[in-house]
Amino acid sequence: MGQHRRTTGAARQCELAGVNRSTVYAPQMATKPDEQELTLLALIDAEYTRHPFYGSRKIKIYLRGLGHKINRKRVQRLMGTMGLAGMAPGPNTSRLHPRHKVYPYLLRGVNIIRPNQV
């Protein structure tokens, strides 16, 4: 029928290449941020200090207003490296709207003993 491909495991590949297996799993050293990235990090930190509720969208708008060409994903990455996150409020689904009528539950205390009773 069809041919089966056999994949060679990482240990066997390292053995064939003559490389220690630990080098394959070794964490990569982080590169030093360049001058532009350091400037962006400082600007993001300053704006987040002034407005801690700003998320990546507002920070992106702020940086673009200063003349930086930056997209939201980069702002998200930079905010993540500094451990910053916007404090957006979540939906408050427990609070009742004052104009919505609350209907009573009519089956409370009713014993249902046969099909199609309710």
pLDDT averaged residue by residue: 88
Contiguous helical run count: 5
Low-pLDDT residue spans = none
Distance between the termini: 60 Å
**Element-by-element helix/strand order:** HHHHH
Category from helices, strands and their pairing: mainly alpha
Question: Number of DSSP strands?
Answer: 0
User: How is the biggest beta sheet arranged?
Assistant: none
Tell me what you see in this structure:
This protein is an all-alpha fold and 118 residues long. It has a domain of 56 residues. Helix 3 crosses helix 5 and helix 4 packs across helix 5.
Q: What topology emerges from the helices and strands here?
A:
Layout: H1 10-17, H2 21-25, H3 35-50, H4 56-65, H5 72-82
Helix pairs in contact: 3-5, 4-5
Summarize the structure.
By secondary structure, the chain is mainly alpha-helical.
Defining traits:
single chain; 118 residues; mainly alpha; 5 helices; flat
